Amino acid sequence: AQSVTQPDIHITVSEGASLELRCNYSYGATPYLFWYVQSPGQGLQLLLKYFSGDTLVQGIKGFEAEFKRSQSSFNLRKPSVHWSDAAEYFCAVVFPSGSARQLTFGSGTQLTVLP
Amino acid sequence: DGGITQSPKYLFRKEGQNVTLSCEQNLNHDAMYWYRQDPGQGLRLIYYSQIVNDFQKGDIAEGYSVSREKKESFPLTVTSAQKNPTAFYLCASSTALTGDEQYFGPGTRLTVT
User: Fold this and answer.
1) CB contact under 8 A, B42 and A9
2) Which pLDDT does position A30 carry in this prediction?
């Protein structure tokens, strides 16, 4: 079955530290991949996306993600976290072979940033 | 500014009442979506519409209904048949050409008691 997994429910980092949020998918081919961020009580904002091409993708707010086909992963990274990065992060995929190209979301990773 | 608006931000209803959540977009997007968000479960698709006067059920459509009479509007009705309606509801839209990238509204938090 096609699925997307975010193994870490909650991550805590100190301000200025580096960050990596994990995302894995289960699918026979390469899906379209997205990372969204959600502040409390707000909608989702797109951070970055991967459709094809260069496997290292740059996004907004200093985030980047790397697609690794061999590991079926699309991990989100930031070299130095700011207090304003505290939010919930969702990995999402579209499986192109489906009859309806729907976004399938992971369950999210809550990021806490310590001063 | 172009965007997606959802109203109201907070909504309270008594059990057994139907309630309609508003979603409007001025992005000229063809496709619109409704998601439900519960803690620890990510987002789940309720309904989506790729064109006016047409819509399809998502993964959790039971107890919900929608209409798409105008391109800009995609209201969601939470009926009394929905067993657990208290949740955060998010509306999204996308173009036909880049339909995989969705833009989200600010959400409506519905509480049913």
Assistant:
1) no
2) 80
The helix/strand/coil state of A66 is strand
| Structure-token pair, residue A55 | 């496997």
Here the tokens at position B46 are: 């309720």
Name the token pair of B92: 């999204």
Separation CA B16–CA B36 (nearest Å) = 19
Pairing of the two strands A10-14 and A109-114: parallel
SS3 A85: helix
Residue A23: Cβ within 10 Å count: 26
Pairs of residues, one from chain A and one from chain B, whose beta carbons lie less than 8 Å apart: 52
Cα–Cα nearest to A94, from B41, B98, B106: B98
pLDDT tens across B24-47, in order?
Answer: 999 999 999 999 999 877 899 999
Q: Mark B26-65 as b/e (b = at least 16 C-beta within 10 Å).
A: eeebbbbbbbbbeeeebbbbbbbbbeeeebeebeebeebb
Q: Are the Cβ atoms of A105 and B42 closer than 8 angstroms?
A: yes
Which candidate in B100, B101, B109 is best for mutational testing of the A interface (most A CBs within 10 A)?
Answer: B100
